[in-house]
Amino acid sequence: MQLEQCAVPQPAPVWADDAARFYLEGIEQSNYAERVGGLLHSLLADTDSLLDVGAGGGTLPASFLSRSAAWTAVEPNAFLADALQDLGSREGFRLQVLRAVWQQLGELSLQPHDTVLAASMCGPLEQPEVFWKYLAPLCKRRMVWSVPAQRGPRQACLSGALPAALHGEDETPAVELILKRLPSSLQPHAVHVADWTFSYRFADFSAADSWFQQRFNPACRVSTGVALRAHLEQVAVNDGPAVIIHAPKRSACLVWDFQ
Ligand SMILES: C[S@@+](CC[C@H](N)C(=O)[O-])C[C@H]1O[C@@H](n2cnc3c(N)ncnc32)[C@H](O)[C@@H]1O
Predict the structure, then answer these.
(1) Which residue has a Cα nearest atom 4 of ligand 1?
(2) Which DSSP category does 10 fall into?
(3) Phi, psi torsion values for 106, nearest 5 degrees
(4) Alpha helices in the chain (DSSP H)
(5) Global pTM?
(6) Domain limits of the chain?
(7) Which ligand 1 atom minimizes the distance to the CA of 121?
(8) Which of 32, 72, 105, 121 for a ligand 1 pocket mutation test, highest count of atoms within 8 Å of Cβ?
(9) How many angstroms separate the alpha carbon of residue 121 from the centre of ligand 1?
(10) pLDDT tens digits, one per residue of 194-220
(11) Which one of 25, 44, 103, 147 has the lowest number of neighbouring Cβ atoms within 10 Å?
(12) CATH 3.30.450.40: does it fit domain 15-198+250-257?
């Protein structure tokens, strides 16, 4: 499949550094590496070269990839690309970080890799067919997309801690939309599921309330603010002065085998 045959992808929005920092802090306090990384270990542990698209801070490959494997990470956000570079040096990975978006994959002169991973990133939901056609030519053996599969919200890391009346999102599992949007010829060969929890520790209740008010009540409506605070009081887990908020997640790993 040639990239020239694909539809032109949409312009790429890139995360702001504060959102990236929040994500990385939270994902490192969560059981994501254990649960989703554990599943990926069973699927990809024998890889000798990995192309990791939308790599973030590298949490998942760091949990399963051999130090002898070549790891090419495509990550547009500067904060995350720097964190990833630090992780690679600190942990002794054979890592190359490319500061680019997936829409630029055709310009990067990449050789095909043994395996390709896209975990918890926007491409599969926004433009699944184009995304598949950009990634598949760069994969020799196995491609895996890890996508949200919980029935519930998926936009913000912690929106799953809220009821629908407060998060305001469509609750259809992303995996259902992705599979529906992919043509029958591009359906995955296997689907595996892992449950996990996104957890974030705030310094105190006021910091948690302030984060949720900014994110879910930007118009500062009094009734919404009161309802948000009351809900947080119910779900916040106290740990000394700190509070931890949990949001349940499910990831579906869509697998394509090319050999
Ligand atoms: C939810 S994070 C997932 C990071 C990592 N794969 C993980 O599983 O922890 C989404 C990542 O996609 C990156 N991203 C956003 N738009 C992108 C694009 N157009 N191309 C490549 N990466 C993108 C973000 O910067 C962020 O690192």
Answers:
(1) 56
(2) P
(3) -70, -15
(4) 17-29, 32-44, 59-64, 78-91, 123-126, 128-135, 164-167, 174-181, 205-216, 222-235
(5) 0.94
(6) 15-198+250-257
(7) 10
(8) 121
(9) 5
(10) 999 999 999 999 999 999 999 999 999
(11) 25
(12) no
